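TA notes, week 10

Several of you asked for a full example with nothing omitted. So below is the full record: structure tokens for the whole chain, then the designed sequence directly under it. When grading your own attempts, check the secondary structure regions first.
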């Protein structure tokens, strides 16, 4: 884990913690692999029942003994991960808070204590992370940010590269190939969390003014400290992507990476509407999400839908059923300007999602 890029707010990891985390990565790899093997066996035994919906497949799989064990193991591995990461962060939290307090920043951080946390974030411990994205164990602290980074590294089984920014790199790879002359002057990253993808975009467009928003203050504090040490100038602010304070037509590129599936149908539409308002003519909006279920094998869909019920991602299953093209059109984008693309993983160099690549949807603004 320590080979990953270190920065001012990085947690220090003892030898024992490092080997515990390595064990958890290996356990997770094994559990995820074995869970798929076991469930595939159960699925095969269901013979001929090819017309089952993903919900029916999942329900049936989880009624079987080995399906139950596989599911329980996966959930337990996730809980063990948070226990381990949590103990490591709590042990040194005051020091981390102190080092994250950035002096003479080149970018900026603007927090809004009056911002109402949307229920879909505030009421859920997404991914089982204790306390959720807004969790503060210390006043004005960075607990949730530090948890997010270390937990994320284990969850992704160390995929995503040393800066865990594979999604951002995939987005850049797509833009470079399909819009080679596109050089945004102002960029907005909606739902930036700790700014991992933001930094990939920042690096790709060094002349752009980059803004990044999120609803969770501890993530933003951490993101700010992290990006300053890693040499990126980003203006972070605590805002809801459904309705921001930015001026209409003030951005060339609006992105959201793996954030829409953590909202709701109503919020997702509002976020797409807001992107339309924020973009200047010729600007581009892009969202990275998992592929729609209609293009996924029902067994694989059932496996992924597990997160809806057992990994505290209540909207993820529903989101994959939505018609993103229709929602973009409703937001005001011309149907002929709709974008839907899978960026192959070898295109942006990552060990994660081998062969699968990343699916984006979006549009250009007319
Ligand atoms: C999985 S994380 C995103 C990861 C990040 N974009 C990246 O690529 O590294 C989802 C983030 O979206 C944020 N979020 C959810 N709804 C939001 C909203 N309406 N406005 C702003 N941020 C939101 C959450 O607080 C969370 O930090």
């Amino acid at each position: 884990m320590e080979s990953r890029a270190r920065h001012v707010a990085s947690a220090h990891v003892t030898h024992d913690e490092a080997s515990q985390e390595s064990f958890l990565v290996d356990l997770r790899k094994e559990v995820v692999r074995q869970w798929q093997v076991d469930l595939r066996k159960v699925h095969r035994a269901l013979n001929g029942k090819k017309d089952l919906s993903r919900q029916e497949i999942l329900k049936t799989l989880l009624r079987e003994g080995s399906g139950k064990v596989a599911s329980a193991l996966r959930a337990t591995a996730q809980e063990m991960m948070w226990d381990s990461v949590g103990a490591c962060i709590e042990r040194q939290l005051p020091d981390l808070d102190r080092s994250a307090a950035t002096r003479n920043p080149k970018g900026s951080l603007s927090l809004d204590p009056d911002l109402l946390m949307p229920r879909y974030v505030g009421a859920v411990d997404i991914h089982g992370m204790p306390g959720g994205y807004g969790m503060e164990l210390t006043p004005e602290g960075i607990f949730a940010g530090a948890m997010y980074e270390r937990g994320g590294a284990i969850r992704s089984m160390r995929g995503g590269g040393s800066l865990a920014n594979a999604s951002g790199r995939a987005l850049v790879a797509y833009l470079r190939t399909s819009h080679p002359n596109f050089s945004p002057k102002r960029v907005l990253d909606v739902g930036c969390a700790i700014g991992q993808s933001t930094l990939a975009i920042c690096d790709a467009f060094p002349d752009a003014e980059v803004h990044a928003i999120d609803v969770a203050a501890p993530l933003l504090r951490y993101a700010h400290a992290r990006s300053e040490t890693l040499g990126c100038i980003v203006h972070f602010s605590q805002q809801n992507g459904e309705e921001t304070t930015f001026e209409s037509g003030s951005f060339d590129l609006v992105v959201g990476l793996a954030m829409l599936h953590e909202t709701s149908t109503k919020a997702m539409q509002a976020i797409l509407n807001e992107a339309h308002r924020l973009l200047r003519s010729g600007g581009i909006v892009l969202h990275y999400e998992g592929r729609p279920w209609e293009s996924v094998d029902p067994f694989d869909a059932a496996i992924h839908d597990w997160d809806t019920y057992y990994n505290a991602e209540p909207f993820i299953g529903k989101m994959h059923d939505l018609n993103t093209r229709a929602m973009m059109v409703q937001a005001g984008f011309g149907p002929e300007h709709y974008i839907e693309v899978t960026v192959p993983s070898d295109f942006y160099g990552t060990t994660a999602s081998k062969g699968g690549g990343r699916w984006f949807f979006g549009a250009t603004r007319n």
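Residues 118, 121, 133, 167, 190-193, 196-197, 213-216, 219, 240-242, 257-259, 262-263, 267 surround S-adenosylmethionine (CB under 6 Å). Use that as a sanity check on your answer.
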